[in-house]
Design brief:
Elements lengths: L8 H11 L4 H18 L3 H5 L2 H5 L4 E10 L5 E12 L5 E7 L5 H17 L6 E6 L8 H15 L8 E4 L6 H15 L19 H19 L8 E4 L4 H12 L3 E7 L2 E4 L6 H13 L6 H5 L4 E4 L10 E3 L9 H9 L4 E3 L8 H10 L2 E3 L1 H4 L2 H15 L5 H23 L12 H20 L3
Parallel strand pairs: 3-4, 3-5, 6-7, 6-10, 10-11, 11-12
Antiparallel strand pairs: 1-2, 2-4, 7-8, 8-9
Helix pairs in contact: 1-2, 2-5, 2-17, 5-17, 6-7, 8-9, 8-15, 8-16, 9-10, 12-13, 15-16, 16-17
This protein binds NADPH dihydro-nicotinamide-adenine-dinucleotide phosphate.
Length: 455
């Protein structure tokens, strides 16, 4: 029988800070989860005895490796690659790969930690992981990206597999990069297996996967609004980002009768008071996907729209906000501006886009706030369905997948209400979606860990 471990929340967090010095994003993510989990396990001795929270905050393993590649001028570059395998208690490790200059161990540890709870919330058998490199695909030729991806996979392939760890895309990793990495895995192992998700539909990719994260975030928003007898019809939204998640969120928000006012990239944001309609959205997709353009070009193309350099869109008045770019892009001041302008709901397409102080502002104002680990889980959920299709050697139809996605998002919403409300999913009541998502996500993983004993 293990000895009980009743350290206080403050002592626990001090330990996390000491063991992970300088890893601010990881510490921030742990702090947010630990606050809620501590309350939940206060009277549950078994979790204390087994030191479950302490174990979940220590990744199973972190693989770090050198990635060498040659540019088109034959200059050799040396980059760093990682895979953080956080926890595989409930299924094979699963989580995206990010290529961006800001990638470091702290960012990947926070993402792998969050992924563990998000994957648990989907109800599908997937553990949590994340990987990436500080490589920047922007401005690189296709050949350069191909050589980098092949070099990255040459090492990564030793650590992944359909029953071990199944990576996917994330910032800077879209269908092009997934194609290059999948091809290299297949070449090295001589096996065709569902080792990556987000693949092209010609070679095992799932229908609905590209749309799933952005659409899922809007469906989560619909569920939150419905809980308060509201809908998207006639509402306005500020959205950040102009990548995969942001553009699909904008598309679905508009389709459901809403008006999208903003989109952004790392240069700034555009504000179109007339709304970004279908035609304008198609223009942006072409700009971003085919012409590697910048969002500022929108203001030159469409009269009435303005570009705000180096600014974020949170001061624009709107009913809803969907941060869909990157972590910590919505700070306290932005949250206050949103609340001051009467925002009623925030649904996060990105991972941890709101700082802890911003989240506090939303909670104090009692607006509906759906954290990324719940609101953007549609992407990994359809990735989980891609794994099932690959195992069955079958491809499901769009309609079936769409129905499954809406059902999954509704189930995730209900789990949040169960643990973040008063337990009865009553319409109209205030729900702490962060607490709901943290507790529901934690419980399943923790109970699996208890079943395995001490390891
Ligand atoms: P993309 O690479 O397709 O797009 C990212 C967008 O965010 C771009 O518009 C990019 O602008 C902007 N951006 C990136 N970094 C910054 C920064 N530091 N400051 C300002 N803007 C920035 O990525 P995704 O759309 O796939 O991912 C967006 C978010 O959603 C991430 O947090 C990701 O982890 C999360 N997510 C993605 C999932 C998916 O299925 N793709 C699943 C679940 C979560 P620029 O072009 O200038 O860099």
């Amino acid at each position: 029988m293990a000895v009980s471990d009743h350290v206080s929340l403050e002592e626990f967090l001090d330990g996390v800070k000491k063991r992970n010095e300088g890893q601010t994003e990881f510490i921030q993510a742990v702090q947010e989860v630990a606050q809620d989990v501590y309350e939940f396990i206060a009277d549950k001795e078994e979790y204390h005895e087994a030191r479950i929270l302490r174990r979940i905050t220590e990744p199973d393993r972190i693989v770090s490796f050198r990635v060498c590649w040659e540019d088109d001028d034959h200059k050799v570059h040396v980059q760093r690659g990682w895979r953080v395998q956080n926890n595989n208690a409930i299924g094979p490790y699963k989580g995206g790969i990010r290529f961006h200059p800001t990638v470091n161990e702290s960012v990947l540890k926070f993402l792998a930690f969050e992924q563990t709870f998000k994957n648990s919330l989907t109800g599908l058998p997937m553990g949590g992981a994340k990987g990436g490199s500080n490589f920047d695909p922007r401005g690189k030729s296709d050949s350069e990206v191909m050589r980098f991806c092949q070099s990255f996979m040459t090492e990564l392939c030793r650590h992944i597999g359909p029953d071990i760890d199944v990576p996917a895309g994330d910032i800077g990793v879209g269908s092009r990069e997934i194609g290059y990495m999948f091809g290299q895995y297949k070449r090295i192992t001589n096996r065709w297996e569902g080792v990556l998700t987000g693949k092209g539909q010609e070679y095992g990719g799932s229908k609905m996967r590209p749309e799933a994260t952005g659409y899922g975030a809007v469906y989560f928003l619909c569920n939150m609004l419905r809980h308060r007898d509201e809908s998207i019809e006639g509402k306005s939204a500020v959205i950040s980002g102009s990548g995969n998640v942001a553009l699909h969120a904008a598309e679905k928000f508009r389709e459901l009768g809403g008006k999208v006012l903003t989109l952004s990239d790392s240069d700034g944001f555009i504000h179109d008071p007339d709304g970004i309609d279908e035609e304008k959205l198609e223009w942006i997709k072409d700009l971003k996907l085919n012409r590697s353009g910048r969002i500022s070009e929108y203001a030159d193309e469409f009269s009435g729209a303005e570009f705000h350099e180096d600014k974020r869109p949170w001061h624009v008045e709107a009913d809803c906000a969907l941060p869909c770019a990157t972590q910590n892009e919505l700070e306290e001041e932005g949250a206050k501006a949103l609340v001051g302008n009467g925002v009623i709901a925030v649904a996060e397409g990105a991972n941890m886009p709101s700082t802890l102080k911003a989240v506090k502002v939303f909670h104090n104002a009692e607006i509906m706030y759906g954290p990324g680990k719940a609101a953007n889980a549609g992407g990994v959920a359809v990735s989980g369905l891609e794994m099932s299709q690959n195992s069955e050697r079958i491809s499901w139809e769009h309609e079936k997948l769409h129905d499954m996605l809406t059902g999954l998002m509704s189930d995730i919403h209900d789990k949040c209400v169960e643990h973040g409300g008063d337990g009865e999913a009553k319409n109209g009541e205030y729900v702490d979606y962060v607490k709901g998502a943290n507790i529901a996500g934690f419980k399943k993983v923790a109970d699996a860990m208890l079943a395995f004993g001490v390891m």
